[in-house]
Amino acid sequence: MELVVLTHVPPRYDWERPHQIAARLPKALSGGDGEHRVVWLSTPACLPEARALAPDLLVYDVTGYLPGYRAALDAADVVVTGGRSLQRAITTIRPDAHCFASGVDAAHLARAAALRSEQAGRRPVAGYAGVVDERLDWDLVRELAAALPDWDIRVVEPASYADQPAVLAEFDVGLLPFALNGTTPSVSPIKALEYLAAGLPVVATRIPDVADAFSDVVALADGGSGFATACVRAANDCAESRAARAKPLLRWHEWDAVTARMAQVISARVAELARADRVIGAPAQASSQPGPRQRSTEAPSAASSRQPSAGLLRSTRATTQPPKPAPVSRAP
What we know:
The protein contains 13 helices and 14 strands. The protein is α/β, with parallel strands linked by helices and 332 residues long. The protein has two domains: 2-103 and 254-330, 3-Layer(aba) Sandwich (Rossmann fold); 106-252, Glycogen Phosphorylase B (Rossmann fold, 3-Layer(aba) Sandwich), CATH 3.40.50. Helix 9 links the parallel strand 8 and strand 9 (202-204). The longest helix has 22 residues, at 255-276.
């Protein structure tokens, strides 16, 4: 099968999920029968380009309630999400939606533990490494810094995924200080797994997907004082015991394991559409019932047949390096 991934990467951050899917999913799909084009849509803004590619299968990876997401839900043959909370919300429209949480490259992140072992004699560090935006609870971060005057509290936006081991090597505790508001119910729990793969204990607010899936390996806390207590306790926890608890989770969430499960769903749906002998690549028709779209027998319109926009198309037939923005480090 041929896989084409359509995404729009924010210029200030290298979002890893579509790149990992583009790199690994073709291998998982290589055992499929016949020549099929699968288009993986990571943003509804690229739906016209997806239709213009005349896919045998359109997959919509729902990342949030972005403009145009309802049209993409109607058009997609397969709908996936990166978290349980978002999946539960989407199933009111697409009961057949699948949840495939983002994976981790455990071997890559494990380098942080080796780098950390070379450091000695410094103050303890509790840190967050990821996208720095409105989802973070800055009041909590300030309260934490005041409650732990002998610690360094860091908020860092790594320049790229390649830089993460070096950044995480400087932490003793990984933080998920997300605000509990309307912007965070569907926050992916992947950051917790990245910290665990880097050999770090994790302290988090009660984000639903983190609390539901990882409460046995993540310390859940409230407010700055609660985070401070949890950080001190976590820093003194047995690292071997924590690693043993985390190991099966990391194995399940390895990117190769995740894309193998994705490939099973995609291959089954391609076979189903082939058996039904349905017309491929036509615009979606409105359906009176939630679920997969009804395909049209009409050709795509001229508007939907334009060439994909420059900078949005990533195909597995060519290996490209994602952009590397300048690093950002912000103090609370």
